[in-house]
Structure formats: structure tokens, C-alpha cells
Specification:
This protein is α+β, with helices and mostly antiparallel strands. It contains three helices and six strands, in the order ββββαβααβ. It has a domain of about 50 residues.
Length: about 100
């Protein structure tokens, strides 16, 4: 369970210090500040690409449900967990929204 729940209106955005490259169905991220590389699978790369511009959690989930055949609750849980991991690793910012 997440320590701090992500709410529908929370805005998710990429950190400016992250450089990304798409490779087939995946993405590779480089955190310029730390020098760490991250490899994202197809689903994770889709999330990364969708937050190129700040996007609310609810919109992100809706976009993913349209792209993948996934139940709404499963999508919300999986995306919340992944976004929390990205935030913990310093790859995205999550700001309280309306």
C-alpha cells in the first residue's frame, strides 16, 4: 500500500533532468543529476510518454485504459504504484491538483 495516495487531480510531470530515448517498445531513461540509467518496458514507456506534458492521474489512467485492455481498478492500482516508484527515484514530480 502506498504511504501517500495519488489523487485523481494530482499532476504528474517528468523531471527536467531526465533524458529519454525510445527503443522499439521500450524506453531508456538517464537521470543526468545522478548518472543512473533506467529501462522501461512497453507499459512503463507508455506511461512515461503520456506524461511528457503534465497530466492528471485520472487522465493518465483514462488514456492507458484506452490503449490497453485493462480493468479500471487494476489500471489505477498499477499506475499509482508505478508513479510512486518513479517519484521515489526522482524521475517525476507529483503535485497536488484540483
Amino acid at each position: 500500500m502506498l504511504d501517500q495516495a495519488i489523487m485523481d487531480g494530482d499532476l504528474i510531470s517528468r523531471r527536467a533532468s531526465i533524458v529519454a530515448a525510445d527503443t522499439a517498445d521500450e524506453a531508456i531513461l538517464l537521470d543526468i543529476d545522478s548518472g543512473y540509467f533506467f529501462q522501461l518496458n512497453k507499459s512503463a514507456a507508455s506511461i512515461w510518454n503520456l506524461v511528457e506534458q503534465p497530466k492528471s492521474f485520472a487522465t493518465l489512467c483514462n488514456d492507458l485504459q484506452g490503449k490497453f485492455d485493462i480493468a479500471p481498478q487494476t489500471c489505477r492500482e498499477d499506475v499509482a504504484e508505478f508513479v510512486a516508484e518513479l517519484k521515489d527515484r526522482g524521475l517525476v514530480d507529483v503535485r497536488a491538483g484540483g
